[in-house]
Amino acid sequence: MKRWIVAIVLCVAAWTGATVPSQARPARDTVSVALDWTPNTNHTGIYVAQKLGYYSAAGIDVKILPYASTAPETLVSHRKADFGFSYSAGVAFARAAGEDVTSVFAVLQHTALEIGVRADRTDIATPKDLDGKTYAGFGTPDEKPLLETVIRDAGGTGVFKNVTLNTSAYDAVYRGKADFTLPLATWEVIQARLAGKPLKTFKLARYGVPPEYSALIASSNAFLKADPALARRFLAATARGYQYATDHPRAAADILIAANKQVLTQPKLVYQSADLMARSYYRDASGGVGAQTLGVWKGYVGFLYAHHVLTDADGKKLTRPPDYASYFTNAYLPRKS
Fold it and tell me: All domains of the chain, ordered by start, with CATH?
């Protein structure tokens, strides 16, 4: 129940001479979180914190907004959602265009995006061999410079064909209608293996692309400044959810599946993804979850700026380097003891 509703109830009770029963449920704050896709292991910590009562203990009711046609960054910026799932490039493009969006929690501490080709493609041994091949992509501005960088770093020219297929990109590669795409190691690569269509992958960091946060939670400065205490309570409970998912990946996966039975119909995929996330992606160098570094943001957003893909609200390329420190904040995370 929102606090303003409680205030009205109390005012009416006082005016009528009535009293609020002492056993009434304590007032709760409602926080909305927009998903960036159908529920998957990037979102596990939210569902864990909800199921295990971490949000309830913090006095919060969480409303999970399913993925829709409006990007989470837009929903957050226009106060249609308090928090939303995103990734480094998503936040970078939104901020460059003047949107009020700031990353507050790194879900994945390491780049999960990789270049993927069918494992049986003997003609593609390194990214250099992608020259002249067909890329099945998603239409985001960072894809071309990212792939050009990798191919050139491997010794190629960086020239390839580009077709935008969105979610059909993976199937196009499986069926041989396209040569390569950009799957997540934590999901599509596992999914392909389980389907008997394994992928051979190339890690971006090995070929000149700076690391990024492939999954994160963002909010708006307007929301954070309006109620910093609520933001801290929400992120503290969320951090507990992701820490639990790190320490108990199988149990966390069970919670995620139980909450999304109609969507998550491949338990093996969820279990294997959860295990991989716990082993290699959720934790930072200190073993914690959620914190971000200026180095990662400066490296990746600087890469986008250098390749002229950051544009303002009028579609014009940025002519000055962004204020990288403004793209994220750790100020609302629980303090380490």
Answer: 3-110+213-327 (3.40.190.10), 114-204 (3.40.190.10)
Measured on CA atoms in the order 141, 144, 145, 149, is the torsion positive or negative? positive
Contact (CB, 8 A) for 140 and 198: no
Q: Which amino acid is at 285?
A: A
Q: Hey, what are 334's tokens?
A: 């629980």
> Which residues, 6 or more positions from 40, have their beta carbon under 8 angstroms from its beta carbon?
187, 264, 270, 273
Residue 16 pLDDT class (50, 70, 90 cuts):
very low
Are the C-beta atoms of residues 41 and 273 closer than 8 Å to each other? Answer: yes
pLDDT tens-digit series, residues 248-272: 999 999 999 999 999 999 999 999 9
Q: Where are the alpha helices (DSSP H) in the chain?
A: 3-16, 44-51, 54-57, 72-77, 88-96, 143-153, 168-174, 188-194, 221-226, 228-247, 249-259, 267-280, 294-306
